[in-house]
Queue: 3 jobs
Job 1
Amino acid sequence: MANRPMSRTGIVVWIVFASTVLLGPVVIIGWKIVEALSSVDETTSAPTASPCATGTEAAQRTPINPAAAPYAGVGPHPAAVIGSEPPNLPTEWTAAEDDGRLQLIVCQQLIATGAAEPTTCDYGPAYPLPGSGDSESEPDVAGESEPISLTIVEATYTYEVFEARTARPVTTVTLQGSESSCPGTVGSWASSETVLPKKVSDAELTGALRPVITEPAP
């Protein structure tokens, strides 16, 4: 019996069938790759925050050093203080943020400013301005700016203490700034509205954190 030529409809059906058989696995593999890439992107873009994050970001606070030693046993429990020009703890109480001996992170936060001091920090028309790199290779140079006076104000700070490896809260202390000093240099950040918060002294922070750093962990 002679073979009958395939109809146009049959040819279309055959092409669709062949495409499904041949391209189906390719489409499935491609879809899996897209899913995998999407999963990686979601993982890498997941919100995180520094160990000293506050406000709405505090919920995403992450450990600063997952490889750090646990906050456990007898003291001292080495700590690192994070903040803007924070006080210094005794050397034997401290460890770098990437040091495996580190146990605690201390986060300094300025939470309030108050009354102005009678003394101001006054700078003349050629007061020092930071070099462009603010380093030894580019020292401070004399500026040609208008005279300016900066006000020193009372200040309140919190020092939140966390376990470095887990970001688990340990304790919080609140301290009043007691030290005032005028910066050796001021730059574009300074204006007639600028205030200088008094700072917490080394001795004050050392005394406040002595129990948590030197005594056995609970």
Note: The chain has two domains: 1-46, 55-214.
Job 2
Amino acid sequence: MSTPSSHVASTGDGAEIYYESHGVGQAILSIGGVGAGVSTFSTIAPLISEEFKFITYDRRGTYRSTGARDRSLKMAEQSTDIIAVQRAAGVSSSVIFASCGGASIAFDLVSRFPSSVDALVVHEPLTLSVLPDAAEQIAFFRRLRETNSEEGPVPAMRMFMERHDLEITPAFRALTERSGDSSFRNEVMPMAEFVPDYEAIRASGVPLMMAVGEVSRAGGYGFARTVPLLAEKFSCETAIFPGGHIFHDQPEPFSAALRAAVRKALEGQESKCGAVGYYSGQKSWAEPAGPRTTASRTTTPFISTASASLGR
């Protein structure tokens, strides 16, 4: 297990982005959702770094990164910050792993700087605009922001967690008390309302894989229902991960799933945006016996599009 190294990446406008690097090899840079930072990935970073170089960072204006702390998140700025982190980490491109609202940043990054992304694995994206009940879903997140303004971040977070059958642990509550107000004020709506540039992403040629937790999929939550719809738009594969939206309680199986998804996304042409993906027939995310070739794959369609309806 590697020891993480701590660094600071300087941006063109004077902000300094704190990041940590774990391991060596093919780089994976992680982008978390609302309120996320380095600590969000602390349980999976040591496991991912057994095979890959895993980079985590604090967004500008949050935690140990500098920059304006009281203004709405700007996607173009976030994408440029990631380029700064990549350069500081000594890589010109990386795999991007994005979860929840972090997917909004990742989609913007691919559309602006496709050459900086080796592959993209997106876990339960908060791309609510793709849903048939988008207006209702987005209205819920507006209520979260309003609840934060009127009652504070803990009641707002409780609304989110209860709606999605998630538990607020003492550690999560402490983090919410520390940074939740800023997250609800500045991050929630830019992430929830973001609409990807589908044409640019499809044209990018970046290998893309969608992922959904088996618990979230069974629950039919909004961020889970986005997955098959986006997989259909991008004609890419969908991976079923263990657990639900918050992966900290199952770090080992989640990390194995993510590592397998990254390997698969990097394999070649079948996972690229605009190409048809296929399911390998594997029933779980156990480590594969050897490399899978295009010629040896089965042609059973992978779970995606309308056949993977998630219910409510």
Note: The longest helix spans residues 134-151.
Job 3
Amino acid sequence: MSNVSMSKNGQESNNSHVGSKLMKTGVIAVLGAVMAMTGCVVEGGEELDALSAEAEQGEVETTGEAEQALDASPLNAELHTKITDSGARTMFTRATLQRSGAYAGQLYARTVTSNAVKLTGFTGGVFIVLRNDDGAVVGVSGLHTYGVDGTWVGTYRRDEIWIENFDPQVAAAATWLEIVQQRASSDRIPAILATIGQLKQQGCQIINVPGVCS
């Protein structure tokens, strides 16, 4: 059994921006009340208009900065997969793709492979697909395989960290990660590698990376 995880960047509210806007709105309201009481409404109208325009301009600028930061923020995804229907054999992967800064293009992943069967083990495999907003492939990792023994035989749980590096252009184009986990016994590996090869070619049609795309 195989499974996939799909993760997009979530939109987060900017509380500090909202608070700033409310403070400016409050100041404008107080000034309006004072001017009305002192008969300075006409003279103060232009100042109030200027403050309102400043508040609105601040909103636009702050929102733009927030959107830019969000666009370049890391992508995160995680997936727990039952390799067998009983749940006795499982894989769990958590991954982060850096899309900007000194580590732009770095995919950092942790995979835990577990087996609760007493006498027989298994080998699990994981790879990660990078996709854009349209769902098109822009990049794909290699296959990472991990074998575990039966609980009465030897090592039945492995906790591994693996890292791959993509071209920064590929990382910047990605907007969500798809984790694929499945049994990766020797007879299944050729088919899995063929799938990864096809995904790689799809990504090269979107972004042609020298040295990666043939």
Note: The radius of gyration is 26 Å.
